[in-house]
Amino acid sequence: MSDLRHDPIQKRWVIIAPERGQRPLEFLPPAPLEREAFCPFCPLHEATTPPEIYAVRGETFPNQPGWSVRVVPNKFPALRIEGDLDRTGVGTYDRMAGIGAHEVIIESPAHDTAFPDHPVEHIERILQTYQARVRDLSGDQRFRYVLLFKNHGAAAGASLSHPHSQLIATPITPRTVAIELDSMRTHYLAKERCLVCDILREELERGDRVVAAGDDFVTLTPYASRFPFELFIAPRRHAHDLLGCEGPLLRSLARTLKDAFARLRAALNDPPYNFVFHIAPSIALQPHRPGYWQTLPWDFHWHIEIIPRLTRMAGFEWGTGFYINPTSPEEAAKVLREAEI
Amino acid sequence: MSDLRHDPIQKRWVIIAPERGQRPLEFLPPAPLEREAFCPFCPLHEATTPPEIYAVRGETFPNQPGWSVRVVPNKFPALRIEGDLDRTGVGTYDRMAGIGAHEVIIESPAHDTAFPDHPVEHIERILQTYQARVRDLSGDQRFRYVLLFKNHGAAAGASLSHPHSQLIATPITPRTVAIELDSMRTHYLAKERCLVCDILREELERGDRVVAAGDDFVTLTPYASRFPFELFIAPRRHAHDLLGCEGPLLRSLARTLKDAFARLRAALNDPPYNFVFHIAPSIALQPHRPGYWQTLPWDFHWHIEIIPRLTRMAGFEWGTGFYINPTSPEEAAKVLREAEI
What we know:
The structure is a homodimer.
Chain A: E1 3-7, E2 12-16, E3 54-57, E4 67-73, E5 88-90, E6 93-97, E7 101-106, H1 120-138, E8 145-152, E9 164-170, H2 175-191, H3 195-206, E10 210-213, E11 217-220, E12 231-235, H4 247-268, E13 273-278, H5 292-295, E14 303-308, H6 315-320, E15 323-325, H7 329-337
Antiparallel strand pairs in A: 1-2, 1-6, 3-4, 4-7, 5-6, 7-9, 8-9, 8-13, 10-11, 11-12, 12-14, 13-14
Helix pairs in contact in A: 1-4
């Protein structure tokens, strides 16, 4: 039974999920992922995962082969879907029950197809699956945020090699998102302009941190990149919400992602990476909530962050939240622009 | 020439230090540290480091053997000591020159002596060295913060196996520290009590997250621990400043650290770890600064954080600032209390 606990000093929520726990000496440094003897995500093995929540499939039965994207609950969830939040104070501290959703998006039946090798239409299906799950979970009044992310490679936290993303719906807004909401609102209130729109305008003018500039999306290495080859992808036209990204715009996003991952692979020899969507909190989908119009984060500009896990210098950052990046974003952008894909 | 750049979305400063840079394909996952053929930190090799800044030594010459603790500039510093801050706006962004100090504290002449194997008196000398360096650097008006930390083991970011800590003086307050300053001040203004004093009182009453409780210091696993076996060490008596920790109190701190590291080693088979001091910003040492009395962080309670680097689940956290901890702090405290040291 997991618990959400609030750290009053660092003002952040942490999931304490001991059912996932290992005995102390079972913690090991990540080893490269080997091809597993048995892959639970491959077709014909559908019965070895919990029953599917969602799938893109033809006229075939649930939990049978025939799907092209499949969503199942995480077998070892950090949060569980049933129950009340049970918000309580414990002395000086605050906690709530570890309620939420923890799902796995199996991106393709093919065990060995990397993200940039999918056809654009298939990446679109993966993105539509993300959207369908965000839409569904955002209707749940208990949840404040749906976090969509992907860990690729053991060093990035992946424990299975079959291509998959994950989703965690939480009853709190992660601190990183809360800070972004605040900085975007502050900028808007002061200037009546969107912070990310301002950044995109400036970057497109300068050009030296632009990796790819399509009609709809821009791929950048951020001015204050924390990590070598960190990427930031945002829509050119202001939008707080991934769900409005449909039709030709969604196809454009699929093309942008295919391009970005192909460049990372070509330039950096298939690095491990984390891929995180920064979308507005799900309260935006709940107009029946009190204060809906006031809290609607119309000034938030959604974006995607890709962090290759290359650097050895990680020690310092964990304890301090302070980063040293040995590769300038201008050099990283140049390497990625010139990558042969 | 490094640069400090501000991320306007995440409101955090990043050091872009390309002179430390590697070519893209030179980034490697950490390998276990081997005994180097040549150790620049061992006695008789003093000439291979930059000239020493400080040393605890008998009547011997600088940069010669005879020292017991020795401080040298980092050979590949992330920040450089000379120059003006040169704060400038660059379009939407803010930057300043990468000015600061980056020093290495060589903890002992002995290449193979681990922290818990030092006599208490020697740990005291290391702590006094930290204090001397913090005192010296805090007098520099350009700096806002002195960050003291230690990376032990390759997985924690160490690149040399000879025991050493590091220090970085920065012209900004790291975001983590800024958040702590804010939460402690808010708590104090609301309740006229210190947040950490409140936490210590409660933890000592409950007892199940207490690893060791001495007369002067308490070692805890925090209520909302982000990582398995994370430790929090704080003085029982309120103090914002490490520099006031002298005499019997400093000896007590040395004993507390020896005990904590011995427990981690015994329970977890010498894990890699990061060890970070959370002290008040150095402005506290500069009474000539305008606004000194207003900004003096008397409500800050200094403490130490130790983070063993055990978990494989690191991917998720980097992108989101949201943590999942598979080991409850109560279980971790029990394991560490019962460790045979």
